[in-house]
Amino acid sequence: MRTLSVSPEVALALDEGRPVVALESTIISHGLPRPRNREAALEFEQILRDKGVTPATVAVIDGIPTVGLDADGLATIADADIAKASVRDLPILLAKGLSGATTVAATAHIAAAAGVRLFATGGLGGVHRGANETFDESADLSTLAVTNITVVSAGVKSVLDIAATLERLETLSVPVVGYGTTAFPAFWLRESGFTLDWAAADASEVAAIMKSHDDTGHGQGIVVANPIPADQQWEPAEHDRVLTEAFAAADKAGVRGKAVTPFLLGYIVDASHGRSLEVNLDLARNNIRVAGDIAIEWSRISA
Ligand code: PSU
Ligand code: MN
Hints:
By secondary structure, the chain is α/β, with parallel strands linked by helices. The chain has 13 helices and 13 strands. The protein has a single domain (about 5-300), classed as Indigoidine synthase fold, CATH 3.40.1790. Helix 10 packs across helix 13 and helix 11 crosses helix 12. The chain binds pseudouridine-5'-monophosphate and manganese (II) ion.
C-alpha cells in the first residue's frame, strides 16, 4: 500500500523487531457506546504498553490508512461519526480523503501490509444466522484467508451462526486454535458448545505455530480463540433472554447488511443495562493481554 502511514513509534518497534500488536477501530467507533469507547481505546493501548508491547491502533484518517494513531486519530475514531470500513471500502475512502473505522478485515489488511503480525480484537465477524438466504457473511473470514496475521478473539458473537462460521474457516484453510482449551468460545460466554481440533498451550506455542505457518508458505491468517475467564462471563440465562429480544428488534427494524452487527451490539448493551458492555470490555482486555504475550514470544523467536 503506497499511501500507508505508520507512526514513528510503531515503525521503530517493527524495525527493531520489538513486539507490536494491532488494534481495530470499528470496535471503538461502532461497537462500544460513547463516551466509554474513548476510555477503552486509551486503556487498550495502555495494557500493551504496560507489557512493553507497542500498540498499533489502525484506522483510515483523512484518506490515509494509518497504523498507530496519535491523540487526534484516537479522538476521530471515538468521537466523530465516521464510516465503518471493511477492505472493499478502503479505495473509496482513500480517493475521497475520508476517515473510516476499520473492521477486523480492514485492520488485518492494513496491519499486515505494515508488517504487524499480531492483532487483538473482541470478536471476529462471521456467518450471520439466516445467511443461507441473506448471504450475510463477514468479509473478516475471506480476508483472513489471504492475510498473514494472527488474530486473538473471544471467538465470534453468539448472534452469529457459529457452526457455519467454523465450517467457513475450515473451507478457507484458516488455522483455528483455542488458547489453553479446545472449547470454542461465544464472545460473552466461555463456551459455545463447539469443540476445536486443536489447542495451543500458551503464548510460546502460538508463536511456534506462526513460525511453522510461515514455513508452509500458506499465507492465511491464524485465529486464536481465547475464552473469557469463567468468573467474568455473562450469565448464560440472561444472555439467552436478551439475545432473543435483540433478534426480534432487528427483525422489526428491518436492519440489513453492515448495520446488523452495530445494531445488535447497541441493542444488547441497552437491554442488558450495560452488563454485556462490561463483559465485552473484559474479554477485549483479556484478548489484548494474550496478543501481547504472543507478540513478545514472536519477537523472541523471529529475531
Ligand atoms: N465484534 C464485536 N464488536 C465489533 C465487531 C465485531 O464484538 O464491533 C465489529 C468488528 O470490527 C468486525 C465487524 O470486523 O464488527 C464485523 O462486521 P460485519 O459483520 O458487518 O462484517
Ligand atoms: Mn455483513
